[in-house]
């Protein structure tokens, strides 16, 4: 599903964000990506989305060598990925339903399919009753649920969540992670970058830890902090 093979990423500024990263994430896995700020987590996720290209090594996502993809093929790759951001990034002048539907419209989905798929996604995250509300009327946790609905409405093979609970209170954060776990049970591969030790320790899923651009730990049922 996702394979990093000897991957390095050096930015034009000279900063080496990743160095000799080799790791495989199989279909249907739930993985937490942890590490201090500046450890390379965001770059890791950007490489999967082809926002960045590796300087060395290969990144293969669902059979595609990301570094070798022509620009015209990148949208096809991204249609297989659902992304949840810390900052929500909802369109403030569109309703909840319209925000979710937007993800389908930009990919050219048949208009006949859009309504039922939006309804399914909102029901999955418990936001169907708020379909006609604008984002400003929602709490932070509710807005993140809408973001999650937007991420899954395209029925992606992989969901990437970049600090999805960073702006939420503990109760809302736990609800979001439970939803991600439920989505994973349906067969979707889920990769969550987080600084929240409580959530990682409760779920006990695979943990990949980055430090200074290198993988320093990869545990099948890990805690946020390595056990000594």
Characterization of this structure:
Helix 3 crosses helix 4 and helix 4 crosses helix 5. The chain is 32% helix and 25% strand. Helix 6 links the parallel strand 7 and strand 8. It folds into 2 domains: 153 residues, 3-Layer(aba) Sandwich (Rossmann fold); 65 residues, no CATH class. The strands form 2 sheets. The protein has a 6-stranded mixed beta sheet, with helices on both faces. Strands 2-1-4-5 form a 4-stranded antiparallel beta sheet, with helices on one face. It is built from 7 helices and 10 strands. The protein is of the alpha/beta class and 228 residues long. It is globular.
What attributes does this structure have?
alpha/beta, Rossmann fold, six-stranded mixed β-sheet, 10 strands, 25% strand, globular
């Amino acid at each position: 599903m996702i394979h990093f093979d000897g991957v390095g990423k050096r930015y034009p500024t000279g900063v080496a964000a990743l160095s000799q990263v080799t790791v495989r994430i199989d279909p249907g896995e739930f993985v937490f990506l942890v590490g201090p700020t500046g450890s390379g987590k965001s770059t890791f996720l950007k490489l999967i989305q082809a926002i960045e290209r590796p300087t060395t090594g290969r990144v293969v996502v669902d059979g595609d060598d990301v570094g070798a993809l022509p620009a015209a093929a990148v949208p096809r790759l991204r249609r297989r990925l659902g992304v949840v951001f810390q900052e929500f990034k909802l369109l403030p002048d569109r309703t909840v339903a319209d925000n979710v539907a937007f993800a389908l419209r930009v990919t050219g989905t048949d208009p006949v399919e859009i309504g039922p798929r939006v309804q399914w996604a909102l029901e999955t995250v418990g936001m169907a009753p708020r379909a006609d509300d604008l984002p400003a009327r929602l709490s932070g946790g509710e807005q993140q649920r809408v973001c999650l609905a937007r991420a899954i409405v395209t029925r992606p093979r992989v969901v990437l969540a970049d600090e999805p609970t960073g702006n939420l209170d503990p109760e809302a954060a736990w609800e979001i992670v439970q939803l991600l776990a439920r989505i994973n049970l349906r067969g979707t591969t889920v990769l969550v970058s987080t600084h929240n030790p409580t959530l990682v320790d409760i779920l006990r899923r695979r943990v990949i830890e980055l430090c200074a651009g290198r993988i320093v730990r990869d545990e099948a049922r890990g805690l946020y902090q390595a056990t000594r």
